[in-house]
Design brief:
Elements (H helix, E strand, L loop, with lengths): L3 H11 L16 H9 L6 E5 L4 H10 L2 E10 L1 E5 L10 E2 H4 L4 E4 L21 E4 L2 H10 L4 E3 L5 H4 L3 E7 L8 E9 L6 H15 L1
Parallel strand pairs: 4-8, 5-6
Antiparallel strand pairs: 1-9, 2-9, 3-7, 3-8
Amino acid sequence: QHYSFAVKAFVETTQQVDVAEYELAIRETRTQEVIRDVAGMRSEIGVLYLNETNRKPLEKLISTEGLVFHHLINCGAFVYLWKGHPLAQKRTITLEELKPWPCLAFEQGDVPFYFSEELMSTREYPRLIRCCDRATVLNLMVGVLGYTLCSGIICEELSGMDYIAVPFSPGSDLGDAAMEIGYIDRKNSVHTTLGLQYIEEMKRYLQG
């Protein structure tokens, strides 16, 4: 899925490649394709999240495809927006306060709701804009003062210093506002040296 920390870990991994030539790939893509790519051996590792809303169907699909989910980190929800947004200076932000502003969501295609990358995907948003990549999301945060709900784990080195993650205050309904980020791989798979390094770089970044 679309995580800047996963890209940062990839950058750190490639810097450890001590050969004259190589060909690597990192694919930020839809949730369903993350699972398909790992199951079909197009990707060695896939990074995604589980929460109260999507856990059962995704765990079933992951198992059916012969894959295993490995825990990386638990985290709460944050509102990710431009530092010039009227809500950017608040200590916490509620769903009611977000109503005037468009919610930005990654396009998943014609698939069930549990493939969504955004938290609380089953709730109705009065204003919603779907897009395909992180660069567009960042542009829309400035252009239309949009926001997205995310883990709050932001790599400023890659995403820039113009954005901020403010803790989201969901009230008493915390279930779908908490997430477990992890990686999937094929059951009983033996990772390549680079694959192992990539996993360690993700853990190092998340624990740092």
